[in-house]
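Help needed: design a sequence for this.
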């Protein structure tokens, strides 16, 4: 266990950050699942709108280093391919 006051504070801050980052990652995953559901249902307009919002969310997460930038780009690219494949 930490002895220094500053170390205890750092542990508290790290815990708060971990919880917040976890929530954001979970929200991103949920949003991706919703986009995939609308793709499977064949709702192109809805999927495109959701993909736009998803891209924004994932870019913000990458900017804050919650996800790696290339990981975020890969997810956006793969979802965009699926959305654009709807006829």
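Sure. Designed sequence:
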């Amino acid at each position: 266990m930490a002895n220094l006051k500053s170390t205890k504070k750092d542990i508290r801050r790290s815990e708060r950050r971990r919880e917040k980052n976890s929530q954001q990652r979970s929200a991103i995953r949920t949003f991706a699942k919703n986009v995939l559901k609308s793709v499977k249902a064949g709702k192109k307009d809805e999927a495109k709108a959701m993909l736009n919002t998803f891209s924004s969310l994932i870019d913000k997460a990458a900017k804050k280093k919650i996800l790696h930038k290339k990981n975020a780009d890969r997810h956006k690219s793969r979802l965009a391919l699926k959305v654009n494949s709807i006829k």
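The chain has three helices and no strands.
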